[in-house]
Amino acid sequence: MARLKNNQPMSMKKIFARARKSLVGGVNSPVRAFKSVGGTPLFVHGGSGAYLFADDGKSYLDFCLSWGPLMFGHARRELVKAAQDAMARGSTFGAATQAEVNLAERIKKAFPSIELMRMTSSGTEAGMSAARAARAFTGRDLIIKFAGCYHGHFDSLLVAAGSGATTLGVPDSAGVPKSFAATTIVVPFNDLKAVENAFKKNKGKIAAIFVEPIPANMGVVFPAKGFLEGLRRITKREKALLVFDEVITGFRVCYGGAQTIYKIKPDLTVLGKIIGGGLPMGAYGGRRDVMSVISPEGPAYQAGTLSGNPVAVAAGTAMLDLLRDESPYKRMAQLADYMCEGLRRVSLRSGVPLRIQSIGSMFTPFFLEGEVTDYASAMKADKAAYGRYFHGMLKRGVYLPPAQWEAAFVSYAHTEKDLNIAIGAAAESFQEI
Ligand code: HOZ
């Protein structure tokens, strides 16, 4: 991947000032504005493997990795070629292609719970449409979600939402009609009793439970033993649907997502990120009878000119083939463990309280003591300390997610040498916290 021509270092402050004149907050997605960690956002123009090239003329070791989709790092050859070839054949047709069928078959093979699916252009769109499918199928309006889980920025689930919404202090966004928010019941993650109570109070009215089976949008949090099984049992008994949001975990924690690890079969699954190979893509799918409510088979309308876009489908298919053929999961988990161990070591040495939660290639260093099991415990993390850590790392050439309540990622392109550089940078950064 070529760097900016001439490689003239530019001032981030100047670019940001220019950006703010044309783009809301200078960015196209809020966490990129660095509001949570302070300072001026990074403007980038390229990447290669584990490295990101910024307009300040520097290279950064990347642990944000576009928030998850880049399993093989930036600009992996096969993915670039697949996208280029598809683009050369035509960027969009607004008509069906066999390539979409090929990708759908691969997704079904990896996720046996998915019998029928629909592709979209983003995870948000997929989540929104899954909510519509669940409501149409059950004829009920209410949805249970867990505080700190994030299912995209659509109205009815943008309540007590994690990710950027939490980071920027708007977990209950302005602009969501009260009547929409009233269709969402928020309960604490890992609290089956609260789920039972919600069903008792709203007998026959709850369409679905939406859950990130391994939440990553309040930082990485684990389901307590029996929690997901409990959700499955309760939803079956109450004739409500169980919807797994695997936008982050799908094809990340293993080829078949968190549902394969925990051996739970949800009724619907929401996917995004990795299935587009780094291009805009989402999908939702599950039981044939439930998905059959979606148009044109059923009465629940949902559509999109760029849904199943041929360039995104080509990149996504190439990504799934690489994941299948190269099986990078074990190696990536080893790399992430190595990184987490290194961070634990340097935090102990510096006396800065740190709790790292990780699974496979994703992890969150929480600046706090004790375990993080839900939103309330995640909120105890010291956001200011994370900000200082973030900037300490940035000035030493390491780019992290610019927010405490997110997951960091390792790719197959990272090496032990890269991780030693990052751990060394952390050792110095911790001295400044
Ligand atoms: N929702 C993403 C984090 N979980 C952030 C997307 C972005 O800002 O690029």
Folded structure, characterized:
With 433 residues, the chain is α/β, with parallel strands linked by helices. The chain has two domains: 12-63 and 328-430, Aspartate Aminotransferase, domain 1; 77-326, Type I PLP-dependent aspartate aminotransferase-like (Major domain) (Aspartate Aminotransferase, domain 2, 3-Layer(aba) Sandwich). Helices cover 38% and strands 14% of the residues. The protein has 15 helices and 14 strands. It has helices at 12-22, 77-89, 98-110, 123-138, 164-167, 178-181, 192-201, 227-238, 257-262, 288-291, 310-326, 329-350, 375-378, 383-395, 416-431; strands spanning 44-48, 51-54, 59-62, 116-120, 142-146, 184-187, 206-211, 241-245, 268-272, 282-286, 355-359, 362-366, 398-399, 408-409. Strands 4-10-9-8-7-5-6 form a seven-stranded mixed beta sheet, sandwiched between helices. A four-stranded mixed beta sheet has the order 1-2-3-13. Strands 11-12-14 form a three-stranded antiparallel beta sheet, with helices on one face. Helix 3 (98-110) packs parallel to helix 11 (310-326), helix 12 (329-350) packs parallel to helix 15 and helix 14 crosses helix 15 (416-431). The model has no long low-confidence stretch (mean pLDDT 96). Bound molecules: (4S)-4,5-diaminopentanoic acid. The site of (4S)-4,5-diaminopentanoic acid has 8 residues, from loops.
